[in-house]
Amino acid sequence: MNGVSTLERTKCRLRAHPMALDAALATGVLVTMMAGSFVDPHGGHGASWGARTPSVLSLTLMVLGAAALVFRRRAPLPVLAATGALSVVELVASDPRAPVVMSAVVALYTVASATDRPTTWRVGLLTMTVLTACAMLAGTLPWYAQENLGIFAWTGMAAAAGDAVRSRRAFVHAIRERAERAERTREEEARRRVAEERLRIARDLHDVVAHHIALVNVQAGVAAHVMDKRPDQAKEALAHVREASRSALNELRATVGLLRQSGDPEAPTEPAPGLARLDELADTFRNAGLPVEVARADQGTTLPAAVDLAAYRVIQEALTNVQKHAGPGAKAEVSVVRVGPNVEVTVLDNGPGQGDGPQEGGGHGLLGMRERVGALGGTCSAGPRYGGGFRVHAILPVKTRTPALGDPA
């Protein structure tokens, strides 16, 4: 692990100082060219190799070619043109030859690794053709000499190696970009789910607060009306106010508790309300003075938690609207019926004031009901009844295709 970390640190330092890395590379190329310039592959006595002394021109061309490589990252094409020109001069004017063409090979590799494939093909073929042709046509060696064919091979390998490095670098970059894009997508999906969950909790808060505040408002009005003449009835109404406010606080605590962090103390364990508490819900409205009849024909169907909560909230919101808008003397009927793969919830009232009340008030209760039911794949309709009153009708699937976020597993 220490070796790997040291290697990574070294790579990071080299990437941070590219000019120093190119200077080191240029020095290495210069040393290699100098060493090669003192070797004569055709000389010697009884041996295939001998020694020779390079000319001043060759030494100068080698130094200039190596110096040009220091700027190969900043200007790859000009550096290739400069090193190629130096190599042509060396091939034509110098005898014996020195390996100045090595600097052009490195420059061609840089061009191939830094540009696109069409540019590599054009520049590579041009460099190979010019340098090989100059080597074959100039000098005392025959055109088929090993040194001439070596120039062709080395320039071709430099272009191919540079193109391979560029392709691999592009492939790795594409993989890294795809991984980063996937990570961003996951984060966006997580944020979207969090926003949906917050919206769901906000709807629950709206339902809880609207329901209980409506009951408190009605009972407080009754208490104020009969306080002087019938104190016993006023006391009973205030008791209902106290009970409704306590229920509101308990449900608010349970709902807001869903927003707690995992490490927060006293996280709520109370399940969300459902149709099992329908009679209790109806009793709160009866105590507030609204007659409510409940009829159930769902045959003991066990509903998913999200569907059960949605059905309960639809009934709660509908009865709250009846309490607020239907007027005195109104009564409500609630029915829960299992019809095939669905559960149908209907809330009817006969109040003359209910028909336009919710729309004129501009409330979001009906909209919240439709969104809640629609999120589960159901439908919800609400509107005036023929002959007076109002009707809320919701169709909820018994089995949801995808569980809602936040439902218990």
From TrEMBL:
One of its GO terms (molecular function) is ATP binding. SUPFAM superfamilies: ATPase domain of HSP90 chaperone/DNA topoisomerase II/histidine kinase (SSF55874). Residues 310-399 form the Histidine kinase/HSP90-like ATPase domain. Residues 14-169 form the DUF7134 domain. InterPro entries: DUF7134, HATPase_C_sf, HATPase_dom, Sensor_HK_TwoCompSys, Sig_transdc_His_kin_sub3_dim/P. PANTHER family: NITRATE/NITRITE SENSOR PROTEIN NARX-RELATED (PTHR24421), NITRATE_NITRITE SENSOR PROTEIN NARQ (PTHR24421:SF10). This is histidine kinase. It catalyses: ATP + protein L-histidine = ADP + protein N-phospho-L-histidine. One of its GO terms (cellular component) is membrane. Pfam families: DUF7134 (PF23539), HATPase_c (PF02518), HisKA_3 (PF07730). Its EC number is 2.7.13.3. The chain crosses the membrane at residues 20-39, 51-71, 123-145. The keyword Kinase applies. CDD domains: HATPase_UhpB-NarQ-NarX-like (cd16917).
